[in-house]
Amino acid sequence: MTAVAAPSVASLVQSVDWLAIAPPTIAAVVALVVLVADLFLGERRKALLGWVSVAGLAAAALALLPLLDGDRSTFCLKTLKGEQPACSYTADHFTLVIQFIVLAGALLTALLSITGIKDAKNTPRELPEGEFWFLLLSSAAGAALLPASRDLATLVVALEVASLPAFALVGIKRDDRRSSEAALKFFLSSVTATAVTLLGVSFVYATTGTLHLTRIATALTHVDGQFQTLAQAGVALTLVGFAFKTAAAPFHFWVPDTYVGAPLPVAAYLSVIGKAVGFSGIILVTVVAFPSYADVWGPALAALAALTMTVGNVAALRQQATRAYSAVRLLAWSSVGQAGYLLVPIAAAAYSKDADKAIGSTVAYALMYAAVNLGAFAVAALVARTKPLNRISDYRGLYRSRPLAALVLGFFLLCLAGLPPGIIGLFAKVTVFSAAVDAGLGWLAVVMAVNVVIALYYYLQWTATLFRSAEGEQAVQRIPAPLTAAIGLTAVIGVVLSGAPQMVLRFASTGLF
Q1: Where are the alpha helices (DSSP H) in 385-441?
Q2: What single DSSP character describes residue 74?
Q3: How confident is the model at residue 80, as a pLDDT?
Q4: What is the rounded CA–CA span in Å between residue 26 and residue 29?
Q5: Which pLDDT score, from 0 to 100, does residue 1 have?
Q6: Angle 67-68-70 (CA atoms, 0-180°, nearest 5)?
Q7: Per residue in 88-112, is it b (16+ CB within 10 Å) or e — as a string?
Q8: Is 231 strand, coil or helix?
Q9: How far is CA 104 from the centre of its chain?
Q10: How would residue 124 be classed by pLDDT, with cut points 50, 70 and 90?
C-alpha cells in the first residue's frame, strides 16, 4: 500500500495581498480605534473622534492610488494549470472607481456630521459621538468591500456590513420618535429584501455548485433543462436585495420617511453610498455572473428603470413647498428618480454588444450624482441650522442672505436637472440616453425623456425660490469650517466635472472588467 502524504501546513495557508485590500481594511481598523478610544476619552475631547474618522477615511481613499497601476486579486482558489483562477477579492478599475465614490462620499458625510453632532450637543437630540463614528466607518468599510467582491457569499456579507450600521445611524437620534420609526421601517424592509436575496443565492448555488461569479457565469451556460426554471428564479431573486439598496420601485417605499427621520448627514450618506453599494452589486451579479441570462434580467431591469424614474419624479413633483421637511422629501424622491436613470445603462448592457461601454455610462452618472447630491444635502444642512423644519419655502431669499450658498445650490439643482451651466448633468443624461438608444431600447429612452421634462419643473421651481424676495428678516449664522469645506469641495468637483465631462466618461468606462 502506498502512503499518501498529508498536505503541509504551508500549502494550506494563502498569502494575502494587503495592498489590494487596504482601502476597506483601513476604514475598518479606524472604526475599531474610534470605538476603543471612545471608552477612554472625556466628553470634552470626544470631538477628536470626528477628526480621526475624517483622517481615516482620507487615508483609505489615498490607499487607492498605488492600485492604479493594474488589477490585483487575492483570496483565490488554487486551480489547475491553464485554468482561470477564481478569486473572492479583485481590485480592478471598476472596483477602484466605486471605492473612490464610497470613500470620498463617506469623507464628505463625515465633514457634515462634525457640524451636525456639535449643533446637537446639549439638546434632547444629542448624538452619541463614539457610536456614531464607529457606525459610519463600519458601514463605509462594508460599502468599500462590496465592489471588490467576486463571489456571492462575500457580496452578501459586504452588503450587510454596509447596511446594519446604517440602520443604527438612522435611529441614532435620542428620544426622537420619527427617527426610531424610520430606522424600524428601514430595518424590516431591508431584512425582507436580504432574505429574498439569500433564497436566490441558494437557488444559484444549487444549479451551479459554486459561489464565485466567474465560475457561475460558466456553469449557467450548461444548466440541465430540468433546472432552468430554478436558475432563472435564482437570478431574479438575487437582484432583489441590491434593487432595494438602490431604492428602485417597488422597493423604494422606505426612502422618504427614512431620509426625514435620519440625521441629515446620514440621509446624504444613504442617498449616495447606499446607491453606490446597490448599483455595484447589480452590475457584478448581472454582467459578471449572469451574462447568459440577460434575457431574464435585461427586461426586468428595463421595467424597473421606467417604473422607478416615473414614481420618483411624479412624487417629487407633488411636494408642497410649505410642508415640514419638504426639501428633504424632495431630495429623497429625486434620488428615487435618479436611481431610475442609473438603471437604464445596466438594462441596456443586456442588449448591447459592448457591455463595458453601457456600464461605463452608469458609473459616470454615479460620479456626477454623488458629487452634486452630497452638495445639495450640504446646503440643506446649512439652512437647517436656522430653519430646522427644512421646508422648500425656507429657501426663499437665500441669495440675499447667503449668495454663495444659493448659487452653489442652484448649480447643483441644475446639474441634477441636466441644464447648463451644470454641463456634467447634461452630459451624464445624454450618455445614459445614448446607451438606451444604442441597445435598441427606444421605448425606455422615450420614458426617460418624459421624466427629464417632469424633473425640470420641480428643480427649476426650487432654483427660482432661491432668488425670490424673502419674507421677513433672514437669520445669519457663521458657517462652521467643516460644513464650509463640504460645500466647497462638492462645488469644486461639480465645476471641474462640468469643465471636462468627456474625461469622466473615459475614466469611468475604460477597462472596467
Answers
A1: 398-401, 403-417, 423-438
A2: E
A3: 57
A4: 5
A5: 40
A6: 85
A7: bbbbbbbbbbbbbbbbbbbbbbbbb
A8: helix
A9: 11
A10: low
From CA 250, how far away is CA 310, in angstroms rounded? Answer: 11
Residues sharing a CB contact under 8 Å with residue 425, sequence separation 6 or more, in sequence order: 368, 372, 414, 415, 416, 417, 418, 419
* Beta strands 72-76; 87-91: pairing state: antiparallel
State the cell numbers at 34. 474610534
Number of helical H runs and strand E runs in the chain? 21, 2
Contact 368, 276 (CB under 8 A): no
The one-letter amino acid at 143? A
**pLDDT, tens digit (0-9, with 9 covering 90-100), for 414-448:** 999 988 888 888 888 999 999 999 999 999 999 99
In whole angstroms, what is the distance from residue 262 CA to residue 170 CA? Answer: 4
pLDDT by residue (tens digit) across 1-47?
Answer: 444 444 444 444 567 889 999 999 999 999 999 999 998 888 788 88
Per the CB < 8 A criterion, the answer to whether 276 and 145 are in contact is: no
Q: Do 73 and 17 contact (CB within 8 A), yes or no?
A: yes
Name the residue among 353, 321, 113, 347 with its Cα closest to residue 246: 347
3-state secondary structure of 151: strand
Rounded-to-10 torsion of CA 305, 308, 310, 316 = -140
The secondary element (H helix, E strand) that includes residue 88 is strand 87-91
Length of the chain: 513
Whether the predicted pLDDT of 285 surpasses 80: yes
CB atoms within 10 A of CB 85: 11
Q: How much is the pTM?
A: 0.92
**Residue-wise pLDDT tens digits, 370-388:** 999 999 999 999 999 888 8
